[in-house]
């Protein structure tokens, strides 16, 4: 009998305190709690890791050699486990060859469909091409009416210049007497054709003249095979007086099943061509055999040869080579320094050739001369070079600066030269394949008149509509072949729509997807698998999701549960908790103060538990308050918020305006961002928020304010009022470091001050230890056995590599001499093991260290250890460390801060701290712009820019702007409707109105 619960006993992974917990099977369980309370340690490092480990251990040692081996988590027992599948926030792929189509395996089914039922067409003229056996051709001929006269001819010469006397002699020697030259018949035994060798001619050898009859079938078969052999697999069927009722059928049927060209009509004659191979006889192009790999841009059989299947190429960009046309010719070409003799010689020679001075600004010279400098001359130029033997002169064409850079980029073996040239190159859509990644022949294969590249360019929603009725025009044979393939394609597309990804196009690069989108793609794949009895462990699937899309996601999760699976979801989203069967609240605090189960039961039980901070927020005992007043974008008095106004009023400082933004799906929008205010950019998934902030605003400002020409912003007309901003800072979720040597202490410079403290101790001065002695990154004070890492990797052959504490330093990172030095009884290694909150109290006498640690506490990271490797930090934690570091900088108060979903991974209690930090930044005279879906943060904004109305091609418009109250009253705004339940001054009811908790007084910080 199947156990009803997964029972975890004695879990001690990370900060878990000998934890016992039961998780109901075949139910939807949410694990929640403060950041650092042990949620992931329980769900991923314990339950999932043990399930995965047991599965892998059941395999042979040979199989484990390829799969690797997971370490046994620190837990006594886990009973009732099912096979476990983890669906986390890691991006699907960083490979530029991975697309939405490939990671969902949709492209594999598309390739199969096009290889099996696709109709090849000529990539040049678009005519249909096909292949037939000799037997097929005979059958087509015998379908003609009995007695029809026909010639079977072999086209031995097609559109070639020459008189062909030798060919005619050879044909006679082989026994052929009749030929047709340019459609006119000749008897070679009586007359040699007199051809003008300067004109193109076509020569067809008449192999046989027949009357169609089933009795003559052997003779027709023999003639067809002979003609195919003479003309390398191609033959012509010439009908001198074709029957009217059959000509059209023969032509269309022959073309559809393999005829390779136009019927050539001379008087009443009718000519049709057949081919054994795929080739367009009209254009003389061979079409390769159609296989599934013909449609793979990861295979040389299908990839565009120019861009090798990437869809884009690097080219030297004239706009980067010439950045300021007002500069003189001597200095205007950025890659060519006039101080180098090679470039000086060439610039002098071209200037002398055109009789212009190198001190003339480029904008003042003729276009022809400008083109000559950039792209080369057609005339020869006299180059002079000074040598020890005198002046050497040489005449040759000038190559041109742009072609010179292109050539050297391909030919050089020097990495530094290549990097130098790359500074003047931009990535452009491949001109050969128009960014479609495939060869012309592959793009010319059609199914129901549509190529595979057209399908790839569709959004998932449009693709599903396209495939719904695709087989209506199929033949019976095609329907049988395509039935199973289409079923799989439709199923996968449907699952993608179910999880709210209908706006993604199939050719979208996987590396450009957000973590939430990648997670939902994998979730859709799992729904499609139809597995039952599986344990799914998910990591905050609501990240990056608008409330409307989140509701659809929750429907999907419930569907997975109803199939008979167990769902264990790490999540902070309130709606997810309300719809879960069971909630496990971890705590009571973060880090060392966490690692226990505060409450485990239905959501009502959590709400009733007064020890649970999560329960406080779910029940309304605590809440993130609506601000009493909002900063007015127009510089006027404060506008309504919670219903009160201020006499003083909070003024803003003008407006930063984006004009004509049209990158990706943005629909030529104008956006005003009030300066000195806290602005939230909202909208459903795929509406264009990230494009507006990252591609247009940030890159546009980086290029204009810092004169950074290597940054190419998204398409827009202009950015206005940028002079009002002193600097711009993007605080995203990218890692703070890519090696374990980077950690919060080093990133925020806390460790510099700590090392100075240790260097100033009495023992350090006696021994002559400098600050560098206490760095684990340089030789001297660190343990050389482990290189300052604290761990040593033991390779285990077919088992997973094991990391063990270094025997020399016992994991302390430093040698014994360095560890002799203590500050207040603690070694430098002990300090790295301290949590931020603990260190804040420990260094109470050092204001520099305390100030930086206070900033980390302010953003809710007091549970984090100072030496935690940056590679183990979540995206949200990395972003908050960057935010703390920014808070520590002294600025003039005119900084534009851009944040992308800063509430990622935050409990409501931590979110409240973050909102206070953002308000503090704004109160100091800065401008804060945040992409966000979390409504508690959105309701705190002074101004909302809501994009939509939908995602993908149906988005990219500004749906609403204004205060949260103004946006909440607009029916067309999805964000506004969901905001209604959280704003006391808006009487309208939102979509979740019946589940909203009563609004209580703002929470005190005690």
Automatic annotation (TrEMBL):
Give the organism's phylogenetic lineage: Archaea, Methanobacteriati, Methanobacteriota, Stenosarchaea group, Halobacteria
Q: Which GO terms describe its molecular function?
A: ATP binding; ATP hydrolysis activity; DNA binding; nuclease activity; zinc ion binding
- The EC code for this enzyme is 3.1.25.-
Record-annotated ABC transporter domain positions: 345-613, 650-980
Q: Which domain of life is it from?
A: Archaea
A Gene Ontology biological process term: nucleotide-excision repair
**Subcellular location field:** Cytoplasm
Region annotation (Disordered) maps to: 610-652, 981-1006
The enzyme's main class, written as a single word, is: hydrolase
| NCBIfam families reported in the protein's UniProt record | PRK00349.1 (NF001503), uvra (TIGR00630)
| Name by which UniProt lists this protein | Excinuclease ABC subunit UvrA
| Key words of the record | ATP-binding, Cytoplasm, DNA damage, DNA excision, DNA repair, DNA-binding, Excision nuclease, Hydrolase, Metal-binding, Nucleotide-binding, Repeat, Zinc, Zinc-finger
Q: Which Pfam families match?
A: UvrA_DNA-bind, UvrA_inter
Cellular component aspect of the GO annotation: cytoplasm; excinuclease repair complex
